[in-house]
Write a structure and sequence with these properties.
With 935 residues, this protein is α/β, with parallel strands linked by helices. It has 33 helices and 27 strands. The strands form two sheets. It has a 23-stranded mixed beta sheet, with no helix packed on it. A four-stranded mixed beta sheet has the order 2-3-1-4. The radius of gyration is 34 Å and the shape is globular. The N and C termini lie far apart (76 Å). 41% of the residues are buried.
Length: 935
């Protein structure tokens, strides 16, 4: 709004505004004269770059609203009688201040706040000072920072100004940044935050982080960016080292804590953290008093504030219900000895994995409410009794919309109803468990033992646990849109019927490896949940009924009309993802036709109708190559250098993931180039042949690759070096059964981004020294698979455990004598979730499985071979000994003579695979199966 003050009666004064930082080389030397009468028409962007501007201003208006001009124009200064005065100040902030002073509105941002505040302070414009302070109070008092309005660099400058000038900005800025710590760490200028400000935020009671992991990573990131000398960091008097004590190391995820043992800045704290985590995770009964010795409970309190939106506890085997409850209670209750006693008693009651949680005296625990929490992730938390934890979530997190609880075996699917009833706003649920490797279509079963029911507490009414688990909903739950039940064998057709009836808003369902459901049960979901556009049903009995349901006209449910051609009302037409190993849908984002007999024509048809296709998986499709050749024979004008399918892809798609095999060649890569410029995952399997020239082009064609997996390709050191040097975002590299061999030269430079490395039958000459070189240059690997490295011996265990202490997956097969002297150092990889040791030397103890489960609280999968058993066999764990294990696989070999003439040279024999014993546990039972395949 423009004021009429400029036209009021009174003298006019000329302000000669000179920018001390302005350039005297301004191209336009014309004198600029403007007036406050037209203040609303000032072109501020262009005027701000002028070094000198003359402004005609109303003297009285200046005197009334500015103590500076009042003293200058009304006092005893000589300027008081001048018609013109000079002002040396930053032009942009001066013009903005004058516009405000003469009635125009002000657009404050974090960028112009400080210049305007300094101008208001110097010129004594109290009204502008008040507006600036009010704006700062407003933007810093909001729960969440809005990036377009606030920038971290500007907030830091404001904080530094307040610190230098003893203003009261400091507390409110610290409050704001502590509440928005995750946002602060995500900013490019985070490393420029002064240490004093960082420390103040970390110490602040309102510090809000998703998990203790984020705080740890942020501190290490800041320290690494600020190049603090190693000897200074080890000085006990350095406050920068003391900041680590603010991390609640007992609450870090085990993989993170274990991995940081290699970090020079954090190694001592990481060692203490691992010890504390294992103490909490492996104790037979949880006792706060024993753990803390009557000390400070605050180190065991999960960070929860009124601003917490995401609570991420994944990978924390130490998290239990008593510890969770402790974090949800008012702080004053932490030192209540009676409450401590009740928490310890609660831990004893929860030892049976399936106790009746309704009998817990919840009234003894007055938990707080955290309205802002929307997402909770308790995946890989084996000690947490999920059914009991849900009781806490329902009270403390009334706004909960997303629950991730993957790999929680002690939660039975039949309890899903209670979960949905307790948390009515839930829309996204992940209850994934490890997929059973015994898939009937993929293995040949030799024998199957009767399933053994687990020992479940029967303290509650048996009617709540029927022989065939079902759950019933008395009302429709419209909020549920995404449901992941992957790997759950305790879900049946009756459960799918109930889900279909009461969750009509589902748009994504994952039933991968749910082997207890049938084609009929899945079809009900497809028919009744008309909004479904993402379906995952790999390794199920998805079949004819499902296809009919997908193709049925969803506008009619009378069972009469089934339109199979060009039906825009069918579910198939609306699909975005169909992950079943084959697809007849259109308008897809993901298409998986791997290991099928689908034709090139059919895939091309789908591709033409799916311009939004992001992912194509077509490995193992021999017919694609055959069909392609037929087309080329019938249409000789088409060049073999431009295959039809790849031409369609290159013409219409912008892919992020592609997996191909038979018929894929160097020429195919050239044709695909327009479609793969943003590719993130590239897999080339059996039947594909890029050649060395093609592999060297991959980093050029796909510069953003994060995953590269190659089977049966021709490789060399130069190819691998080019890949690792050029693809800066590469996180996953797998070289499997490739022709040619690579040496340590491929890994003699740093690859800090690499997280997963698989070398199978490509590094036969790898030595312990080569492995050490690999560990030094690829130090952030968390998943390692080595196959056929026959020169390794038991000393390599030290290299692996010391080089990658945070490993979560380790596969060693046919690797020389790695386990010939037993498994000792590898037991220090205490964050392992998946461990495979086969044909690495006869020396593994009989009780290895039980011992590993007790030492590695996150271990879910173990695979061994009897050939390596020192005593000829392995002890199988019972329900108690298995801890978190869900799958144990023990392969067995027969010994056969190598040649017909082996008698002459002695009893020389070689092991030949015979069978694999597989033990699987779910929430109800233990199953034992023997199959022919090596799994």
């Amino acid at each position: 709004m423009e004021s009429n003050a400029g036209t009021a009666d009174g003298e006019t004064v000329i302000l000669n505004c000179i920018d001390p930082n302005g350039s005297s080389l301004h191209e336009d030397h014309e004198e600029i004269v403007i007036s406050t009468v037209e203040v609303g028409q000032w072109d501020l962007p262009s005027l701000a770059h002028r070094p000198i501007i003359k402004i005609k201003a109303n003297r009285q208006r200046l005197v009334q609203h500015s103590s500076y001009f009042h003293g200058l124009l009304c006092g005893s200064f000589s300027e008081s009688c001048f018609d013109s005065i000079s002002i040396h100040w930053d032009m942009e902030s001066l013009l903005s201040m004058l516009r405000f002073l003469f009635g125009c509105s002000l657009d404050l941002t974090s960028e112009n706040f400080l210049p305007l505040y300094e101008a208001a302070l110097f010129f004594g414009v109290e009204k502008l000072l008040l507006v600036c302070r009010s704006w700062l109070n407003y933007v810093t008092s909001e729960g969440r920072i809005r990036p377009p309005q606030l920038h971290l660099g500007d907030l830091v400058h404001i904080w530094e100004y307040g610190r230098e000038n003893a203003t009261d900005f400091i507390p409110q800025l610290t409050d704001c940044l502590a509440r928005n710590f995750i946002w602060m760490t995500s900013c490019d200028s985070f490393h420029n935050v002064p240490f004093e400000l960082l420390l103040s935020c970390v110490k602040h009671p309102c510090l809000t982080v998703d998990s203790e992991k984020h705080l740890c990573d942020a501190i290490l990131l800041w320290l690494a960016a600020n190049t603090i000398p190693y000897d200074l960091l080890n000085s006990t008097g350095d406050a920068r080292v003391a900041i680590f004590t603010e991390i609640r190391t007992s609450l870090l995820p085990l993989p993170l804590a274990a991995g940081k043992r290699r970090c020079p800045l954090f190694s001592k704290f990481a060692e203490r953290s691992v010890n504390a985590i294992l103490s909490l995770a492996t104790s037979s009964s949880f006792s706060l008093a024993n753990i803390l010795g009557g000390g400070d409970f605050s180190q065991l309190r999960i960070r929860l504030t009124e601003y917490t939106k995401i609570l991420d506890l994944s990978g924390c085997p130490q998290i239990s219900l008593p510890l969770l409850l402790l974090s949800m209670l008012p702080f004053s209750y932490s030192v209540d000895t009676m409450l401590t006693k009740k928490l310890n008693q609660l831990s004893l009651k929860l030892e049976p994995s399936d106790m009746d949680v309704s009998r817990i005296p919840w009234e003894n625990f007055p938990v707080l409410t955290f309205e802002a929490v929307e997402v909770v992730d308790v995946s890989n938390c084996p000690m947490l009794h999920l059914e009991a934890a849900i009781e806490c979530f329902s009270t403390s997190f009334p706004s909960l919309t997303t629950l991730k609880a993957a790999y929680t075996l002690n939660f039975r699917t039949m309890k899903l109803y209670q979960l949905l009833q307790k948390c009515p706003l839930l829309s996204d649920i992940d209850l994934t468990v490890e997929s059973n490797p015994v898939i009937p279509a993929k293995v040949s079963v030799i024998s199957s033992f009767p399933a053994v029911k687990l020992q479940i507490s029967t303290s509650f009414n048996e009617e709540t646990c029927p022989a065939v688990p079902t759950f019933h909903f008395p009302r429709r739950l419209w909020n549920i849109t995404k449901l992941i039940l992957e790997g759950r064998t305790d879900i049946y057709d009756s459960d799918l019927h109930n889900i279909a009836e009461c969750c009509p808003s589902l748009y994504c369902i994952n039933l991968n490896a749910c082997t207890s459901i049938t084609d009929s049960g899945i079809s009900v979901i497809l028919l009744k949940c008309v909004g479904l556009h993402s379906i995952f049903a790999c390794d199920t009995l998805f079949g004819h009924n499902c296809v009919l349901s997908l193709c049925r006209d969803i506008s009619r449910f009378d069972g009469v009309a089934i339109k199979m051609e060009k039906n825009t009302n069918s579910s198939a037409y609306k699909l975005q993802i169909l992950h079943i190993g084959g697809c007849k849908g259109s308008s897809l984002e993901m298409l998986d036709v791997s290991d099928t007999k689908v034709s090139c024509h059919a895939v091309g048809h789908v591709v033409r109708r799916s311009p939004h296709l992001k992912c194509l998986i077509a490995r193992g499709c021999r017919h694609l190559l055959q069909e392609e050749n037929n087309i080329l024979e019938n249409f000789p004008t088409l060049s073999y250098n431009c295959p039809v399918l790849y031409y369609e892809l290159g013409k219409s798609c912008n892919l992020e993931e592609i997996s191909l095999g038979w018929g894929f060649s160097f020429f195919s890569l050239e044709t695909l180039r327009p479609a793969i410029k943003m590719l993130k995952t590239f897999i080339v399997g059996l039947g594909g042949s890029l050649g060395e020239d093609g592999l060297k082009l991959v980093p050029t064609f796909c510069p953003w690759l994060e995953t590269l997996i190659l089977y049966f390709q021709v490789i060399s050191d130069s190819v691998v070096r080019n890949i690792l040097e050029t693809l800066k975002n590469l996180q996953v590299l797998a070289l499997c059964y490739c022709f040619g061999e690579i040496s340590s030269l491929s890994f003699q430079f740093s690859a800090p981004c690499l997280r997963k490395l698989k070398l199978e039958r490509v590094t036969a000459q790898m030595t312990n020294d080569d492995l050490l070189t690999l560990a030094q240059n690829c130090m952030n690997i968390t998943e390692l698979s080595l196959l056929g490295c026959r020169c390794l011996n038991s000393e390599s265990q030290d290299t692996i455990s010391n080089g990658w202490p945070g490993l979560i997956s380790l596969h060693l097969e046919d690797c020389g004598e790695v386990t010939a002297k037993g498994v000792t150092s590898l037991m220090n990889c205490q964050a392992l979730e998946d461990l495979l040791l086969r044909h690495n030397g006869l020396g593994i103890d009989r009780n290895f499985i039980i011992c590993a489960a007790s030492r590695m609280p996150l271990l879910r999968k173990v695979a061994l071979d009897v050939c390596d058993a020192k005593d000829g066999d392995f002890d199988l764990p019972d329900f108690t000994d298995r801890r978190f294990l869900s799958i144990v696989k023990i392969a067995r070999c027969n010994l056969k003579r190598r040649t017909l003439y082996s008698i002459e040279s002695g009893p020389c024999t070689t092991p030949v695979h015979a069978e694999t014993l597989i033990l699987t546990w779910d929430s109800e039972k233990l199953s034992r199966t023997v199959v022919k395949e090596r799994l």
